Amino acid sequence: MAMKRKEGIGVSPGIAIAQAVMIDNEEFDIPERHVPVDHAQSELDRLNQATEISQQEIRDLQARTVERIGKEAASIFDFHLGLLNDTVLHQKFKETILSGHVTAEYAVATVLRGYAREFLSMPQYLAERVKDVYDIEKRLLRNLTGQRRQSLSHLTRDVIVIAHDLTPSQTAGMDRDHIKGIITDAGGATSHTAIVARALGIPAVVGLNDITTDAAGGDTIIVDGHRGSVVVQPDDDTREQYQRYARQQTEFIDSLDALQALPAVTKDGHDISLLGNIEFPEEVQSVLKKGGLGVGLYRTEFLFLGSDTEPTEEDHFHAYQQVIEVCGDRPVIIRTLDLGADKYTQSRARTPERNPFLGLRSIRFCLQNIPMFKRQVRAILRAAVHGDVQMLFPLITNITELRQAKSIVNDVIEDLEEEGIEHRPDIPIGIMIETPSAAIQTDAYAKEVDFLSIGTNDLVQYTLAVDRTNERVASLFTAAHPAVLKLIRDVIRVGQQQDVPVSLCGEIAADPEFTLLLLGLGLRRFSCTPPAIPEIKQVIRSVTIQQALDVARQVSRLDSAAEILSYLRSVTRKILPEVYTE
Ligand code: PEP
Ligand code: MG
After folding, report:
1. 528 has catalytic annotation
2. Dist CA 152 CA 178 (whole Å)
3. Which strand (E) or helix (H) includes residue 299?
4. Where in the chain is CATH 1.10.274.10?
5. The CATH number of 258-580 is which of 3.40.190.10, 3.20.20.60, 3.40.605.10, 3.40.50.2000?
6. Maximum C-alpha span of the chain
């Protein structure tokens, strides 16, 4: 196959070159993928194995249903078993694989969807069978792809994972030794899968639209997570070119290691506080290793990762202790659960929300699940005895939410006092400014909190009405929009006027193209993903506040994101030419 270049959204930097492995997802259309003629038998074998597993699963399910509900309810599974045993169906699978040279997944999807269409055109009582057909399709596909997923955890060679989309749990479960890159059809720059990929240091490009059809398992793939490019089946020259980029990047990263012990201070002597964002307690090591002064954002919802049950108070406490132990007396800002929307609850919800980013997420979810919220607040207050812990509430949209959350903290303090459990009652409390309503009303909030943290990922999404996870509108998602910048500027100003510290922990804190502008808008506390800390420090150490003010003034005269971005790029290119190797 000829070389193909694709552009997507680079969400985790680094260059990787390896062979592709495809992860199918039962939720989306299985693309037509061809296999060499001599692979047909192994596709048939995989299909037979998946059929046997599916039959066994259904028999087990049937037996459990008989026990719990009765024989009659369990009889629905007779249809499933009957269909899976049907020789005509298996003949059709076989013919599809042999004549089309396609994967078992594709054969299952096309043949069973054909069956479903036939049932739909039948009398009502048979049309109901359509759901059963889809059920069987899903089960077979899960068992087929499950075999592949399993093999992903026992890899013996380096691979690039291709998928339509991944959940944060799938990404986090990946074998980091062998999974060198991730590329997906869907996703946006600040989706949580992207955040996890970055945390794990796996180069990733998302929003490629149709990479699952343009590439196949076994293809050689180049992933350039910095530029957002992917090359399928590169020729020798391209391969060498990317190997050269990779070497240049490694040299640049190594050269930044020297900054680790140096302060983040501007050329004219202004101290900037540079902290790290973490998702997993282990990441705290890399915050310090990269020269961060503490944890500016601990996203605790990742405690839900890989587990179907809610973490206990002790689970929370243990995780926080781990971070505090490493940080000593450095700040650790623990954000209370930001569940909902793209973070965990949707995929598990019995009735998924139609508009989850505007739904029951974050602080709203906590205020409707008070026992869960209290368990976390107890753990934070207990852990706060051991370090400089601060508590941060996400997605505040009205002052009542802040007051309710604070009143729950007070209730928990009373409980802990009554129980004689050690805790810190005067813990500093802050809120995320990540909705336009919070930004516009910052002055009111500033009177009732100890600090503010600007979350540009959500602030951009809600100000510009652009879903942060949707690749189709990804080009509209930018913090360089003048309306977003105006909000950021105003929040920082109000913080200065009221003497309330303001930090910024959205992804632009990790983007060197925004550093000068943010300094010029008055920001003095940045929190970003640990690998980006040295680069941001490098920019800070190379400029003066006067320069930053000039940049901010220049930007305020421009009225489009495109002009602002291109101006910021040209300024940053002068400071950090190494990042822009072409
Ligand atoms: C943000 O919204 O900018 C933020 C930092 O929070 P998260 O990305 O976890 O939503
Ligand atoms: Mg947010």
Report:
1. no
2. 9
3. strand 295-299
4. 37-145
5. 3.20.20.60
6. 80
CATH code, 37-145: 1.10.274.10
Q: Ligand 1: which residue has its CA nearest to atom 6?
A: 455
Measured between alpha carbons, how far is 66 from 354 in angstroms, rounded to an integer? 35
- Residue extent(s) of CATH 3.20.20.60 domains in the chain: 258-580
Domain with CATH 3.50.30.10 in the chain: 4-23+155-166+173-251
505 is known as an active-site residue:
yes
For ligand 1, whether the C-beta of 457 sits within 6 Å is yes
Strand pairing of 229-232 and 220-224? antiparallel
Question: Whose C-alpha lies nearest to ligand 1, atom 9?
Answer: 299
Residue 338 beta carbon below 6 angstroms from any ligand 1 atom: yes
For residue 36, the CA-to-ligand 2 centroid distance in Å is 46
Choosing from 338, 527, 529 the residue with most ligand 1 atoms within 8 A of its CB, the one to mutate for a pocket test is 338
Give the atom of ligand 1 at the shortest distance from the alpha carbon of 457.
3
Catalytic residue among 164, 192, 316, 423: 192
For the CA of 301, the closest atom of ligand 1 is 9
CA atoms within 13 A of residue 15's CA, in its CB half-sphere: 18
- Fold classification of 4-23+155-166+173-251 is Glucose Oxidase; domain 1 (3.50.30)
Q: Are 484 and 459 in contact (CB under 8 A)?
A: yes
Tell me, using a 6 A CB cutoff, whether residue 342 lines ligand 1: no
Residue closest via CA to ligand 1's atom 1 equals 455
Whether ligand 1 lies within 6 angstroms of the CB of 292 is answered as no
Ligand 1 centroid from CA 334, angstroms: 13
Along the 582 residues of the chain, how does pLDDT read in single tens digits?
689 999 999 999 999 999 998 886 545 556 677 788 888 898 999 999 999 999 998 898 788 777 766 676 677 788 889 999 999 999 999 999 999 898 898 899 889 888 888 877 776 666 667 777 877 888 888 788 765 554 565 667 899 999 988 877 677 777 778 899 999 998 888 887 888 888 888 999 999 998 988 888 788 999 999 899 999 999 999 999 999 999 988 888 888 888 888 999 999 999 999 999 999 899 999 999 999 999 999 999 888 876 667 899 999 999 999 999 999 999 999 999 998 876 665 555 566 788 989 999 999 999 999 999 999 999 999 999 999 999 999 999 999 999 999 999 999 999 999 999 999 999 999 999 999 999 999 999 999 999 999 999 999 999 999 999 888 999 999 999 999 999 999 999 999 999 999 999 999 999 999 999 999 999 999 999 999 999 999 999 999 999 999 999 999 999 999 999 999 999 999 988 876 655
- Residue 364 to residues 51, 81, 132, 357, 396, Cα–Cα distance (Å): 44, 44, 37, 12, 8
Residue 353 φ/ψ, nearest 5 degrees:
-75, 150
Atom of ligand 1 nearest to the CA of 277: 5
Q: How far apart are the first and last CA of the chain?
A: 26
Tokens of 324: 């505090």
Q: Return all residues near 48 (Cβ < 8 A) that are at least 6 apart.
A: none
Q: How far is the CA of 457 from the centre of ligand 1 (A)?
A: 5
